[in-house]
Each structure stands twice: as structure tokens, then as C-alpha cells.
Amino acid sequence: MNEYVLAGGDAAAIARILASGHAADAVEALNREPRALALRLLEEAPLERAAEILDQPELDGASELVAALPRERVVDLLGAMSADRAADVLRAIGEPARAQLLHAMTPPLRRALTAILGYPEGSAGSIMTTEYVSVPPHWTVARTLDHIRQVERSRETVYAIYVVDPESRVLLHAFGLRRLIAADPQARLGDIVPERSPVTVPPLTDVEQVAHTIRKYDLLAVPVVEDGRIVGIVTVDDVLDTMIEEGTEDAHRFGGMEALDEPYMRMGFLSMIGKRGGWLCALFLSEMLTASVMQHYEVALEKAVVLTLFIPLIMSSGGNSGSQATSLVIRAMALREITLADWWRVALRELPSGLVLGAMLGLVGAARIVAWQYLGLYDYGPYWHLIAATVGLALVGIVTFGSLTGSMLPFALKRIGFDPASASAPFVATLVDVTGLAIYFTVAALVLAGTVL
Amino acid sequence: MNEYVLAGGDAAAIARILASGHAADAVEALNREPRALALRLLEEAPLERAAEILDQPELDGASELVAALPRERVVDLLGAMSADRAADVLRAIGEPARAQLLHAMTPPLRRALTAILGYPEGSAGSIMTTEYVSVPPHWTVARTLDHIRQVERSRETVYAIYVVDPESRVLLHAFGLRRLIAADPQARLGDIVPERSPVTVPPLTDVEQVAHTIRKYDLLAVPVVEDGRIVGIVTVDDVLDTMIEEGTEDAHRFGGMEALDEPYMRMGFLSMIGKRGGWLCALFLSEMLTASVMQHYEVALEKAVVLTLFIPLIMSSGGNSGSQATSLVIRAMALREITLADWWRVALRELPSGLVLGAMLGLVGAARIVAWQYLGLYDYGPYWHLIAATVGLALVGIVTFGSLTGSMLPFALKRIGFDPASASAPFVATLVDVTGLAIYFTVAALVLAGTVL
User: Which chain B residues touch A158 with a CB distance below 8 Å?
Assistant: First the structure.
């Protein structure tokens, strides 16, 4: 189909978008075509245009494309791209190709990219750009604006201007461009005292925390500062991209799988099976404990098969309430509304919630049994009222247990050093299922004692 | 405890933050104190500072605070705030108070706010601001920069400049400020031809789509345009806020509940029970069908109680694979990687995925039964090999069915006009449970025909 579109009437429209349309539109069009077209474009288009295309994080398979290009072209392209995106592309290229490319670059570019590549993935340092406007404090506003005019094309943003000590690289102030154009052109930057000291982040700050900072202070960029020295800046559009990625990761993990690192429809079949199969098997092996629990209570089951009728209903209610509590707590943690120290506050909230919700379901469940019995829709045997009581009480216990387990699991994971977002709905359901069965059979043994059991 | 902090040694630090710290820090401090402090601050602080505080969407209970202030003060505050945030606050204030406030305002402010309030929630129009820089095409670059210097403080962003026909309000061009300061000061705006026509959105565009547009084109703001005329702009920081909110909504809904509209720890107990109880009851009532299915197969169950041992295991596997598929599809839809028309492509992907994943679990499940039997850990009876085959085959069927159901549910919801993100993990699990039981008993009846059944 792709071949057809290219060969057919739309070829002219595609060529136009590729040549002069917005780079984002060009990438969207390229992603629908065979990779050979993207390769040809990156090789033959004017350098600036090719770099602009490669600068879009949405371009599929960027590092494979780069690996297939002649080395000199790649070095030129990486130099013309934004530093943070060039580092992204290099990060995905394996050694020794990466070292060879770095070696072929100009020393300043190599230093900038090596610095970014040195920070661990997911840190502020790893997504920062080194292309920002920094000026010494003795410059005047007019000279700074002149400087901005000259460097405008090579800087990711010129809307944040950093006043930096030329010797030590220590960050002194940060100005918004709007502040500068409103200022007296002859004033020296060092003499304009900003209202507040700049908001900064250390290079090892988690990307989510950087997003939180940018959002909280409504910034367009935040400087990354180490020992007082500015090493780069993170811009709001990088944060947007990062938030989308994190959102996808969290959604996939909450669904009970490893996060896919490619779009669903482009992901290789076997990679996808790998991302899903691992968790699915782990959950399956844990859930096998339910069979052991059932075996343990088999004698009771044989005496009162009627009890088995409600097993799926009761188990799923525990899983559902747990899934609700987990999603609430994971999200509140991601938004920094609650921290590890708040676990007992959350527990004190989930305990009554679970009791109330469990009582609601318990009443409905017991009423259903009574109603079916009275209406003659089903005969639950001579002890039907005790069966109804068992189901009702078990639901109170299981929903309460589910809410508590679901809300505490993210805390427990965080406490032992895992990402709390690994607490998925299926994970919680599995935890609750095993204990839920034990609760059900215990309640049954107590309520039905001296009758069928 | 809050009283203590205020009365204790930290009072001076809090007072300092409230008086001159960053507004976001002041709001964070205020949110930890009794509401009376926030009220006093909004009433007594200098107007500009009070408006700055109220401009932070993070301020808890903003509309209650505003409702408690004297009317003249509120009118002054709303005038000093950004228009989009003022509209947010007004939206949360009920009639007739809202109409009275609007009536007391200056006509231009009233018109601006009424326009924003007129758009449905969740649309571009409802989150846009009317405070942007718009200039006629005959102005020079120098005059425009002068204008920006004058209006800088009253505009939400001055980094995007809109060239607008003064008569018709038709949007002609959009410039970034960086482009303007690099241009010849004497050039007329109408003569500088930008490379591309401005990216715009209609006022009824869904907020998620606005975020997508801003992110795709790396914009700092996008103009909202109706019939060619500019009616407002949406800025990147509003989009960030909106994305966080949407992320929270999606997380809560995927957890199987209505989205909370307040932070978890601040939400009223009864409201939270309401948001959770509704879905929990709906799921419970649907899940009751499992009891009916079990009743239907009760004769088989009584003959082969051993079959009940694996019910929780088998049901949960279907739910887990469904939860994975749902989270994949919801996310891919949110990122616009797939549309409604792609449903059959997704189905063609999920069918083999489900078969492979089901076969994996089926092998593990059957092996477990064989192993336990051989090791003498449990006696599954004379037909243990048939039981193992039943469990293995049922798992293939149920995991495949779960993957298909989970992936198709968001499409079905979207098709009938619901939000695909309502397809939660518990929702899918419930759908899969009922059919899963039927699959299990059907497989058992076929495999065990002529033996115990």
C-alpha cells in the first residue's frame, strides 16, 4: 500500500511536505513510507533540513537510519542537530560505532555529547541540551540582545538567558527574554537584580521531578546545575515528550506488563510476546497458589459444592477494590501528593473505605442469594441463610483486605527500592486472590460450623 | 499541628514565603495551613501578589476562598489574574454569584470571561487565554517590540506574536519573539513572510488534541481560531497542567473507578466512596453472572470437584491478558497511533499473541498438574492426564479470548460514543470471567466426555 501511495497521485504532495512542510508533518509522512525513503531523504536533503527531520523524536527507527548513513554525513548531521536529540540518537547506537562517530567530531561537540551521554538514562543530565544562551554579568542588555540575534538559530531556546561567571561557569541569574526586552538597554546584566534566585535542578534529578519543577514554576526551561555551575538546560518541550513516554510506561505497567518502547503497531511480534509473557507467567505461577489453597479446603468443598458458586464473584471483588486503591496511590505518588512517610495516613483512609465498600457489596451479594431462594430461581439447600451470611461477611473482609493490600503495595515496592508504578492491577488481584480464598473458607468454616461443614 | 507550625518557630519562614517567595512555593505553604490563612492573605496582600497566588491552579479550594471574599476585592482580583485562570475560578462558582461578579466587572473583562465560559469544559476554548500579543500588519518590528515592552506584564506570553487584521480579527501570521528580535527593526510585519502558515486549532478542539498539536510542532502557544478569526491562545503550561489532569483521570479510570477531581488525601470520604462504589457495584452485579454460570454447571462440578481447584487460576489468566491488551490499546489510542478504523489490524495482532501467550501458560499449567501427580503431592484422580489436558486447553482458549476482548473493548466503547479510556482492568476482567468459565466447562465436557462427566 505504501508503495502505491508513493507511486500514485499523492507522490507530489508527499514530496512537497518532505521538502518544505513542517518537520513534524514530514516525519509523520515518512513514518508511513518504507524506511528507504527516509534514508534517501536524510542522505540527499540539504543538511539543515535533514537535521530538522532527525531532530523530531517521533521519527521511527532514527538510530538504524543513522547507522546506515555514510559516517561523514552522520557527523555533519549530529553537529547540526540539537545536542540533546543527537545524544539520544547516539545512545541508541551501539559501540564501537558510537565511539567512532564521537571521535570524528569537532572537540567541542564531542565534549558536549560525551557529557550528556555520561548521565544515566532518566536523569535531568541525560535529556538536557548544552545549547543555551549564557552571557557574562558585565554585558549590557543591548549587547546581550545583539548576541541573541547572532546565536538565535543555534540555540534550542533563547527565551531563557543565563548570566554565568565566565571563569567558574557558576550560574548567577536567570532572565526571561521578556524581562530583558523590557529593561533599560544600557543596564548591565549584573546590576539588574532579579526578584528571585533561579530555580535549578541537579543533573541526577529524576526526569519526572524535573517535569514537576517546570510545571510548578511555569518555566520554559530549567538550568541543570552541578556544584553551582551550569552544565545544561532542560526545556519544556523535552518535558512534554518525557511525560508522554512516562505516561505510556505507567499505563503499560499498570496493565500488568513491561512497558513497550515502540508504538504498539510497529513493535515486533516476538518482542511484544516477551514484554507480556514475562509478567503473565510470573502472575500465573503466583496464582497457582490459589490451586493449593483450594486443594487445602477440598474436603469442605466436597461437602458444600454450593460454596464454589461464589468463588469467582468474591475473588473479583477483592481484585477490583485493590485495583482502585492501587491506581489512586500510584497516581498520588507520581504527583508527589503523598510520600513514603504517608503510608499510615493512607492505611487509615483505606481501612474505613474498604469496610464501607465491602459492606455495600456484601449486602447486595447476600440479598441476591436470599432473593433467588425466595423466588425459587435456585435452591441453595437447607442452610441457605448461612450461605448468604458467609458470602456477605466474606465480601466485607475481602474488599477491606483488597483496599488495604492495593494501597500498601506501592509503598512496599517503593520501600524496597522498586518503582511503585510496578504495582499493576493484575499484580494486586493476584495477591488478593490467594488470601481472599483463605478468608472465604475461614468465614465459611466459622458460619457453617456444625451444619454442612 | 498546623496551628502549631504557624505559632511556632516556622512562622517567620512561612510569612517570608507568603510575602515574597515564588507564588508556587507560597501556594504549597498555604495548602498546608488552615483555609483562614489563605483567606486572610487573599484579602490583605497587595492586589498583584494576591492575584499571583490565585493564579496558581495548585491552590486548594480557590473558588470557596473567592466566594468568601468581599465582592469588590474579587472583581479586582479576577481582573488582575490571567483570563483563563479567572474563568476557571468563576466556573466553579455557582449562579447567581457568578452572574453578579460578571456584572460588576468592566465590560471588556466581562466579555473576555464570558467568551471563555461559553465553551464546553475540556475544549480548547475553555482553557484558552484572551491575553496575548496581537498587532496589525502595518506595524514595524521596532514598534511591535515597543508595544511588547509596554504590555509585557499583562500578557500570559509575549513569546508568540500574532499579526491580526485590525478590522476583521483574522489571523494573518504568527511569529516567535526570537524571530522578531532577529529581524530588521524597520521592516513591516506584513512584509516579513514567515516560512509556514500558523498552526491553529478550532475552539471546540478536545484538550488532548490541543496537547498533541503543541507537542507535535514544539509550540509555546497555539492560537484558537474560529472562522479565520483569533479568539484566544492556549499556552504550553496550560497543556502541561491539562495533561497531568488527564493522566490522573486515565489512571483512576483504568483502576476501575470514576476519576477523583481532588487530591486523594483531600477528597471527602463520602465523595470518594461514591466515585469508587458506583463502578464496584456495577462490576459486582455483572460478575454475579459467574454465579449463574457456575449454577448451570453445578452437576458437572459435583461429579468432578477437582475441576473447581483451577477456577481462580484460569479466570485470573484471562483477566490478566485482557488487562494487558486493554492498556496497550487505550494508550495507543490516546497517542493517536491507532484509530477506530484499525480495529481489525489490532485484532489480527492480538489473535496470534493470545494463542502464543495462552499456549505458554497452558503448558506451565498442565505441567504443574502432571508434576504434582508424579511427585505424589496431590492426587487428581484416575483421569489426571485428562484434567491436565483440560486445564492446558482451557488456558489457550481463555488467554486468547482475554486478549481479543481486552483489545476490542476500547474500540467498542469508542464506537458507541463512550470514552475508550473507560475500559478498565476490572471491567475487562469481569467480561472475561463470565465467558472464561463457560469456556472452561465446555472444554472440560469435551475432554472428560465418557469419564467422570
Answer: 178
* Nearest chain B Cα distance for residue A118, angstroms: 26
Does A152 contact B276 at a Cβ distance shorter than 8 Å? Answer: no
Q: pLDDT tens digits, residue range B237-252? A: 888 887 888 888 888 8
Q: How far is CA A330 from the centre of its chain?
A: 12
Domain spanning B133-243, CATH class: alpha beta
Helix, strand, coil percentages in chain A from 3-state DSSP, rounded to 5 = 65, 10, 25
Q: Do residues A87 and A116 make contact, with C-beta atoms less than 8 angstroms apart?
A: yes
The Cα of B100 is separated from the nearest Cα of chain A by a number of Å equal to: 32
* Assessment of whether the complete model's pTM goes beyond 0.80: no
Of B215, B254, B276, the CB nearest to A244: B215
**CATH number for the domain formed by residue range(s) A133-239:** 3.10.580.10
Q: What Rg value do the Cα atoms of chain B yield, rounded? A: 30
Side-chain-side CA neighbours of residue B314 (13 Å) = 31
pLDDT tens-digit map of B179-226: 888 888 899 988 887 777 889 999 999 887 888 899 888 888 999 999
Q: Which of B152, B159, B291 sits opposite A309 (nearest CB)?
A: B291
Other residues' Cβ atoms within 10 Å of the Cβ of residue A376: 7
φ, ψ of residue A40 in degrees (nearest 5)? -65, -45
Q: Does residue B163 sit in helix, strand or coil? A: strand
Neighbouring residues of B310: CB distance < 8 A, sequence distance ≥ 6: A291, A294, B365, B391, B440
The b/e string for B252-291 (b: 16+ C-beta within 10 A; e otherwise) is bbbbbbbbbeebbeebeeeebbebbbebbeebbebbbbbb
> Do A331 and B248 make contact, defined as CB atoms within 8 angstroms?
yes
Best probe of the A interface among B17, B32, B320, B356, by most A CBs < 10 A, is B320
Domain ranges of chain B: 2-118, 133-243, 280-447
Angle at B442 between CA B440 and CA B443, to 5 degrees: 65
From chain A, the residues in CB contact with B1 under 8 A are none
**CA-based Rg of chain A, rounded to a whole angstrom?**
30
Block means of pLDDT (10 residues each) for chain A, 453 residues, are 41 74 86 85 88 88 87 90 88 86 90 89 88 92 90 82 91 88 88 82 89 87 93 88 82 86 83 88 88 84 83 90 92 86 92 94 92 86 89 95 94 88 86 90 87 66
| Residues of chain B positioned with their CB less than 8 A from the CB of A361 | 280-281, 284
CATH of A2-118 given 3.30.420.10, 3.40.50.720, 1.25.60.10, 3.30.590.10:
1.25.60.10
The Cα of B226 is separated from the nearest Cα of chain A by a number of Å equal to 22
- Would you call A152 and B22 a contact, using CB atoms and an 8 Å cutoff? no
* pLDDT tens digit sequence for B316-356: 999 999 999 999 999 888 888 888 999 999 999 999 999 99
